[in-house]
Design a protein that fits this description.
The complex is a heterodimer of chains A (469) and B (159). By secondary structure, chain A is α/β, with parallel strands linked by helices. Chain A has three domains: 224 residues, NADH-ubiquinone oxidoreductase 51kDa subunit (Rossmann fold, 3-Layer(aba) Sandwich); 105 residues, Ubiquitin-like (UB roll), CATH 3.10.20; 92 residues, NADH-ubiquinone oxidoreductase 51kDa subunit, iron-sulphur binding domain (de novo design (two linked rop proteins), Up-down Bundle), CATH 1.20.1440. Chain A has 17 helices and 15 strands. In chain A, helix 3 packs across helix 6. By secondary structure, chain B is of the alpha+beta class. Chain B folds into two domains: 60 residues, Arc Repressor Mutant, subunit A; 81 residues, 3-Layer(aba) Sandwich (Glutaredoxin). Helices cover 43% and strands 13% of the residues of chain B. Chain B is built from seven helices and five strands. Chain B has a five-stranded mixed β-sheet with strand order 2-3-1-4-5, with helices on one face. In chain B, strand 4 and strand 5 form a beta hairpin. The chains are: A alpha/beta (469), B alpha+beta (159).
């Protein structure tokens, strides 16, 4: 039977654990920071010498850690893009704007184990010569902001933060910055604009890659809460041991948020790729299966923006055989290992690690109408295809789900979605379009039946009306 | 009554301003603090923030109209935010919202915040509150409540 593997949430979920400094220190807190600050320079085989900071950066790259916010991009590679020759200050921002529908994992770290995040941040800041960093937390998490502020005060008092950290001559300040209810602030350039005190309009890339032109037009690193917490563990256990967790190219552990039609919704920590989608949904250790008498209809595998997967789908995945040759194997939906690469090969993504399960009692039309309304509400309004298109998608799905649609609406929705994706400044366009494209393509008959039924009902009422006259 | 920010709050905000190399960055934190104190963001609060941060009032006003958490009119004493998004909708948040609206005489078809005439309650349908494992989720002022049944929803109104 598949098991959870608690690394990031090991302490947070142990009985009696509290978010204060004393408890964190009792559980070995800030030892990884001491270890990082004492890192020795490293001689490379080619005669080059790495500074202690470069060693940590190299270790994070070697650990294989991939961003836990949604894109799954190599954290070490992201750090390596930072422009270190500009002479400008380098900033680090922790993205704690957890708002992808279905996701509730960063909340666990922020509220239960804030010092773990802070320790990961101090190490990451030191390794990247950052002197000023921010935690951008969702406005709807006022308690989280208070807990973080308290933890930061404790860290300053103990000399883990502030001037001359642990006597090594390194200065760092971290501040909490609260968002105010806009989903788009989770997009890193939108977040940066918001932190500058503006509307969170994402910036166009190029030229505004945060690693070069980020906060105040300075080089900036934006990392997710879970990613920064993982850095602490990479330092603690070493990159080689960290990379032994999970599967090749999908290393470490990951927090998975499970919601929707399962018996036991909740969050779980797993070794990436060691647990399948089916185990997450059905095992007693995880979701505990569907509700009695229900069968699976669909799975949204990586947050609401990810493409829906239909029950019974079989995917072609490349696997390395015993002879070392790559072969293509058929993998049914529920046997998909929950990792970045498998979900991508299945045409979707593991995104923010949020799985929403839909059983056979659900209407895909209503479900999509709910999601499309979200995107219509959250479009920042900067790009016309998204501002207008997201609203049209919401209107189209709304009328279909309210018995006012037409059979051609399925085609109409696809047409609009195709004209949003790839035509916007940020990935929100794709986020709004992908659910529509996947829902309508995979459940087309359901959408057309809704439209056709509404047309027939209108025709009947019109002809009934004629007879009365 | 003339608009006046207490000295202690102003001192707190002056300290907050030092967290940023550029003053304008403090705007959102100012608006949060002023909304917490006054209950909403008035034109005077916008002008005051602009003056403090060397901005034009429009620079602050455009934030108030962009970020959903900021209000331009007073809300009820108890603010009830019912999550509308998918996981909560699957768990029956629509019925919860309708229940509140019916009990309090509000229009269940409106998504914008609605306040009872006596100023006691504001009900709003909001987007994902990031606690989907506990769906349906309701936020009552600063507190999040999960797995909210209709009976639990009623308890919010009697407390």
């Amino acid at each position: 039977m598949a098991e959870q593997f608690k690394l990031v949430l090991k302490n947070a979920d142990s009985p009696g654990y509290t978010p204060d400094m004393e408890c964190y220190l009792k559980h070995g807190g800030y030892q990884a920071l001491r270890k990082a600050l004492a890192t020795a320079p490293r001689d490379l085989p080619d005669g080059k010498k790495l500074s202690p900071q470069e060693v940590i950066r190299d270790d994070v790259k070697a650990s294989g850690l991939r961003g836990r916010g949604g894109a799954g991009f190599s954290a070490g590679l992201k750090w390596s893009f930072v422009d270190r020759r500009s002479g400008k200050p380098i900033y680090l921002i922790c993205n704690a704007d957890e708002s992808e529908p279905g996701t509730f994992k960063d909340r666990q770290i922020l509220h239960k184990d804030p010092h773990q995040l802070i320790e990961g941040m101090v190490i990451s800041c030191w390794a990247n010569d950052v002197k000023l960093a921010y935690i951008y937390i969702r406005g709807e998490m006022p308690h989280g902001a208070r807990i973080l502020n308290q933890a930061l005060r404790e860290a300053r008092a103990k000399g883990f933060l502030g001037k001359n950290i642990l006597g090594v001559g390194y200065d760092l300040e971290i501040h909490v910055h609260r968002g105010a209810g806009a989903y788009i602030c989770g997009e890193e350039t939108g977040l940066i604009e918001s932190l500058e005190g503006k509307r969170a309009y994402p910036r166009i890339k190029p030229p505004y890659f945060p690693a070069v032109l980020g906060l105040y037009m300075c080089p900036t690193i934006v990392n997710n809460v879970e990613t920064l917490a993982a850095v602490k563990h990479i330092v603690e256990m070493g990159p080689v041991n960290y990379a032994k967790l999970g599967t090749p190219n999908n290393t470490g552990t990951r927090l998975v948020s499970l919601s929707g039609d399962v018996q036991k919704p909740g969050y779980f920590e797993i070794e990436v790729g060691k647990v399948t989608l089916g185990q997450l949904i059905n095992d007693a250790n995880f979701g505990g299966g569907l509700k009695p008498g229900r069968t699976l209809k669909a799975v949204i595998p990586g947050g609401s923006s990810s493409k829906v997967l239909k029950a019974g789908e079989v995917f072609k995945l490349k696997r390395k055989g015993a002879d070392g040759q790559m072969t293509t194997v058929d993998v049914p939906l529920l046997d998909l290992p929950y990792d970045f690469d498998s979900l991508q090969a299945a045409g979707s993504m593991s995104g923010s690690g949020a799985i929403i399960v839909l059983d056979d009692s659900r209407s895909m039309v209503e479900t999509l109408a709910n999601l499309s309304e979200f995107y219509a509400h959250e479009s920042c309004g900067q790009c016309t295809p998204c501002r207008e298109g997201a609203l049209w998608l919401a209107k189209g799905t709304h009328r279909l789900s309210h018995g006012e649609g037409r059979k051609v609406d399925a085609e109409y929705l696809l047409h609009i979605a195709q004209n949003i994706q790839g035509r916007t400044i940020c990935a929100f366009g794709e986020a709004a379009a992908w659910p529509v494209l996947s829902f309508v393509k995979k459940f087309r008959e359901e959408f057309e039946a809704h439209g056709a039924a509404a047309e027939a009902a209108r025709k009947n009422s019109t002809s009934a009306g004629t007879h009365q006259h | 009554m003339a608009f006046s920010v207490p000295a202690s709050l102003e001192a707190e905000l002056d300290e907050l301003t030092t967290h940023y190399p550029v003053k304008r960055s403090a705007s959102l934190m100012y608006l949060h603090a002023l909304q917490e104190h006054f209950g909403f963001i008035s034109p005077e609060a916008i002008a005051w923030t602009a003056r403090k941060l060397d901005l034009q009032p429009i620079n602050v006003y455009e934030l108030v109209t962009f970020y959903p958490m900021f209000r331009q009119e007073p809300l009820g004493k108890t603010q009830i935010k019912v999550c509308r998004t998918l996981s909560c909708a699957l768990a029956g948040s629509g019925a919860l919202r309708d229940h509140y609206c019916k009990k309090l005489g509000l229009d269940p078809h409106k998504h914008v915040p609605q306040t009872t005439p006596d100023g006691k309650y504001t009900v709003e349908f909001v987007e994902c509150l990031a606690d989907c494992g506990n769906a349906p989720v309701v936020m009552v002022n600063d507190d999040l409540r999960g797995k909210v049944s209709l009976a639990e929803a009623d308890r919010v109104l009697t407390q």
